[in-house]
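User: I'm writing a tutorial on reading structure tokens. Could you give me a worked example: one chain, its sequence, then its tokens, then a sentence or two explaining what the tokens reveal?
Assistant: Sure. Here is the example chain.
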Amino acid sequence: MKKLLFGILITLIVSCNKSKHVNYTLFTGTIKNANSKSLTIKNSSNEIVREIKVSENGTFSDTIFNTNGYYKFSDGKESSSMFLKDGYDLRLNMDAKEFDESIIYNGKGSDVNNFIAQKFLIKEKTGTTPELYSLNEEAYLAKMDEQKNTLEKSLANLPPDFVEQEKANIKYEYIDHVIKYQPAHGYFTKNKNFKVSESFPNVLKGLDLNNEEHYKLFNTYKGIVGYNFSTSAREKSEKENISFETAALQLIKESKSKVISNNLLANLSRQVSVSNPNAEELYNGIIELSTDETLKEQLTKQFNKIQKLTKGKISPIFVDYENNTGGATSLTDLKGKYVYIDIWATWCQPCKAEIPFLKEVEKKYHDKNIEFVSISIDTEKDHDAWKQMIRDKQLTGVQLMADNNWNSKFITEYGVQGIPHFILIDPSGKIVSSYAPRPSDKKLIELFDELKI
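And here are its predicted structure tokens:
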């Protein structure tokens, strides 16, 4: 009787253990010649879900919760795709000096992830991006079809649920590559007027662009939806002679998926900036259509900042910025003149490309009522490099260094997110343009002429 009860108890325990859902992936491994002391795990939305410490001898071990889909791990220099699923016990062995070629997985889930590692190498053998897109239509399509068929055949003997997802992923990667052929071929062959033939496959025809599940799961599908949306908005804008923003908002109103439309609106929100003359229209449209309260709150803060930077508003000021010639300079010291400000850094190649044009403009207006001011946002460690570049490039105008690089109050108040960034302020200290034309743009001289500088 005791044996019988003991047997029943063991059966119940085993049954309970089998029915219990494991909500994590175990991820362990050894990295030879590790590039960093940690691995970053990102999901398909490019969000960091885990930072895993790598020991001095290259070993690591951690748990990643609620996994079911495509991920990437990165060592700070290179990255590789993965597929994680709750219950996987995945062990990675690799040599960071031969990153992709050395990846080997063991343990539960290794079959799937070894396929993904090989998938990258198969794509690599197909050819580089410039090589592929430089091929003529027939050769290009043959290469892409061959790659797609090879990848699908490589799925043999893998778990059916993964095979189903990965076939969809391979299809989307194929579509994504093909829809970019026309602009990419024109770019790499330096034939700006290139158009594909009428027989070139329309890979978007019949494709469901409202699949929320695939939008969340496949990054490439998300990219296809975004590409189609942008293309459609541009075409609608040109055809109906309306702004891109109006066209984009109208298309989003027709969307059948709130998940997708919210994401598209989040992407559009980046264009609510001082450089966009249609920023207010776009802001109002996003506030009306989005159900993402966090986005709307952040966007409202951004829009309110922009409102303070419109033409005629009092400009934010900088105080006591280091002057290359000695001492310090504040914006108020320059009152009574127009002030054309160039925000730049010694490491910024586009900034340096503007230097010859800026020097020409300065020379043309050297005796006019305008001061040319260049503000470096280099960090303190690059202070000497800033001084040296002023000498090497024989920079003219007023050369200043911001007091806290990107985080300087003047820089943040102007919402500067990229450089070079140019600003024009009038003699009374009011904003003429918080996103003025570059020196290389003929519109700058037109603006100066309009102001009778």
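What the tokens reveal: The chain has a mean pLDDT of 94. The radius of gyration is 28 Å.
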